[in-house]
Write a structure and sequence with these properties.
Elements (H helix, E strand, L loop, with lengths): L17 E13 L2 E13 L6 E2 L2 E2 L11 E3 L9 E3 L8 E8 L13 E9 L14 E5 L9 E10 L16 H12 L1 H5 L9 H15 L21 H13 L11 E7 L10 E7 L2
Amino acid sequence: MDGPLCIRYADYDHETDYYEFELKVLVRTGPGTFTYESLWTWEWEDDFETYVTEGVEGYDIGTDGVAEFVVGNCNYDPTDFQLPPWMYLPTEITMEIHSLGYPETGPFAGFYWKWRMTYAEPFNGDYYDIPYNTYVGAWCGDHNSTIQGGTHALTQVFCTLDDPADIPATGITFDQDKLDQLNYLFNNTRQNGNIDIMLPLDALKGENVQKAIWGVLHATSNSMPWGWTSNPGTSNPFFPAYNMSYMALQHGIGYTVFPGGFIGIGFISPNNLGDNDFAQLILILVDP
C-alpha cells in the first residue's frame, strides 16, 4: 500500500509566508466522464497546524502528521477533514409539479407536491443523483411564497450540503446553521416525531412533516419554531411537527449526516411568482 502524498513547500526565515493548497478529486461529471473537480482549499500562514490568524487556529491533523480526508459520509471513524459528498447535480432543470395537499393514501400519501424533472442543463439524462422523468413526493420550502402547478423552466438546483454562499437567492435566508438544522430534521423524524419520513405516510403525518420543515426554515431564533408561540402539548395533533422542528433548532447546529442518512435537494423556480418578490422553494430527499 502506498504512503500518503507528500508535498514540499518553501518556508522563508524571518518572513510571514502565505500558502494555499487546492484539493482536486476525480469524480463523475457526465455519462462515462470523470474529471478533477476542486472540493476543498486549505489556506494558512507559516505553519499548517499551529498558525493563528484573525482568531482562527490552524488545522488539526492529529498525532500521525497526515492530513486525512473523506469525501462523503461513508466512514465510521472521524477523519481530519470531512468533506461534503460529491453530488452530481444539474445547474438548472425544467420541473413539473402538481399540488397534492397531503392525500391519505396512494403512492404520494402525505406529500405536499408531486414532482419530476423533465429536462436538465447540462443534459445528461438519468445520470444525475436525482430522479429523471420520474415522479417523487416533494415538500414546500417556503410557506410565504406561492407557485402554480405545472411546468417551470430555468429552475435552479442546490443541496443542503452546499456552501450557503452558493445557494441562489430565495425567500429563505440560508446560513450554515439553517442547513445543519434542516439536515438534522430530515434524519431525526422518527426519534422526535415518531414518524419515518421515508415510509408511506398518512395525511396527518405528512402535514406534520411539512409544518416541521416550515417551522425550521422560517424560524427567526433557535428557541421557538415558526408557527408556534409555545409548546402545544402532546394532545395537539401537530405536536410532532412542533417537537421535530424544536429539536432541530436546539440540536441541529453542527449536525453531520451519517452514512445512509438523507439530505434535501432544493429547487428554486424564478417564474410564476404572482405578487411575491422572491422564488418558491421545493424540496425532495435523497441519500447522498
